[in-house]
């Protein structure tokens, strides 16, 4: 059992590193965005045990569902999944919405973390932000 957990932590580190690389982020950059130390982020990528609240910060920074890492450690079902954000982007592209709205949503999805926060902190108008958030919520209800 302990060996299985260690193996999953090592695999988790690989998944976190892969997601960070796909986002084009450095450890220092993603750790700052996650409001955690780079040392803690490196520990996660190295498969070292860290506190649960740190794992929650990693999930948020990578745009993974809350609790996905703990679920992975317990069940072996990989968090995030490389296709999740691409699946959402495909969904957005298929919507009957203005292209300008699609661009706002796709940018938010690509930033990682909570896409609603990304929309709120973006430069779009208030009306565009409301429309993007409504669309994201609609998408969340379908997923």
UniProtKB/TrEMBL annotation:
Domain of life from the UniProt record: Bacteria
Protein's organism: Plantactinospora sonchi
Protein name per UniProt: Helix-turn-helix transcriptional regulator
